[in-house]
Design brief:
186 residues, alpha+beta, 7-stranded mixed beta sheet, globular
Length: 186
């Protein structure tokens, strides 16, 4: 069966949130106890300007999803992004340009059993295809030697380092923050 990448309306995304959060928990190896809280957060994300969501569907089963929206000063993640930039030498002209116009790639996840088959690449490509910003920015947990599917995907798509070994409040793992200019063809 062929995996289909579908754009989701905010209503479709909201209906699928339980399945999507389960994929996220499995892919990130999070404690399932966070399920209800993450569902509330994800459903709230549809209100942000530029909200875009895509799903990978195989035979009626959702096997992956990605979503994002325009970055905004009032968001917690934007404040963390600025903190990362400031802690790593201050806001450069490139950083300021990023902060003026970026699409936050909030989540890209594929069911662990389906990873490594190009589904993440198809999701990311469709998610960013019409992104209404000059930059795409995301974060991903650090792994030794960038030896996982996520890093391979982001590097393949031209994402470069904004900050490495960054610690978010409430998560003991270090993260990499990565960015690339948009559109994808550039």
């Amino acid at each position: 069966m062929t995996v289909e990448i579908r754009r989701l309306s905010p209503a479709e995304f909201s209906l699928l949130v339980p399945q999507l959060v389960d994929i996220y928990i499995d892919a990130m190896e999070y404690d399932p106890a966070i399920r209800a809280q993450r569902q509330r957060v994800w459903r709230g994300e549809v209100r942000w300007p530029g909200f875009t969501a895509v799903a990978a569907v195989d035979g009626g089963e959702v096997v992956g999803a990605a979503y994002g929206f325009l970055g905004a000063r009032e968001r917690w993640w934007d404040k963390q992004l600025v903190r990362c930039m400031e802690e790593r030498g201050g806001l450069t002209p490139r950083h300021r340009d990023m902060l003026e116009s970026y699409f936050e790639v909030a989540e890209v996840h594929v069911s662990p059993a389906r990873q490594g088959a190009g589904i993440g690449a198809a999701l990311l490509s469709e998610l960013l295809r019409l992104a209404p910003a000059r930059w795409a920015i995301l974060s991903t947990p650090e792994v030794d030697g960038e030896a996982n599917n996520a890093f391979g995907l982001y590097r393949k798509y031209g994402f470069t380092d904004v900050g490495r070994d960054f610690l978010y409040p409430g998560d003991p793992r270090p993260f990499a923050i990565l960015a690339r200019p948009l559109p994808l063809s550039s």
